[in-house]
């Protein structure tokens, strides 16, 4: 059973990310949503807190704008009544939101982070969470990103972008785990 002071934080698991071309092309971890669903089920069954984060873009025409179909949550991460939903407008789920205050009120000291995208909102939120004193677990195969074009024109593969970002988080800002290992730890009684 996960520690009751731990929350699963689902970041931007929204339908806009189904349009790979809008985000740079190919993506890594096609199984990320399935892994998120497995983690979500386990956290719901075990009792710890689940917190959803949605990105509501203020950029006109953005697929993540609240009036666009892409704003909707993917079915694998559908919110349930009673689960807090934080709406953010920037990369960090802590900026301009009540996330930190809500977590403090609930007695949450540890976060398990999943979602999109590795190098933007997941990384930024992870770094800030660690700086705020949370113990952070970043689930490698329950996050994903897309190919990125460097200013010099070179396209960097999504898996490389993902791995470099995860390596930058490892140890300094978060413990890095895979879904199966985290679930095995929960079943064994750890968090």
Automatic annotation (TrEMBL):
The keyword Metal-binding does not apply. Its EC number is 3.-.-.-. Residues 57-80 are annotated as: Disordered. GO terms for molecular function: hydrolase activity. InterPro entries: Isochorismatase-like_dom, Isochorismatase-like_hydrls, Isochorismatase-like_sf. The keyword Transcription regulation does not apply. Keywords: Hydrolase. Pfam families: Isochorismatase (PF00857). It comes from the Bacteria. Residues 6-150 form the Isochorismatase-like domain. This is Cysteine hydrolase family protein.
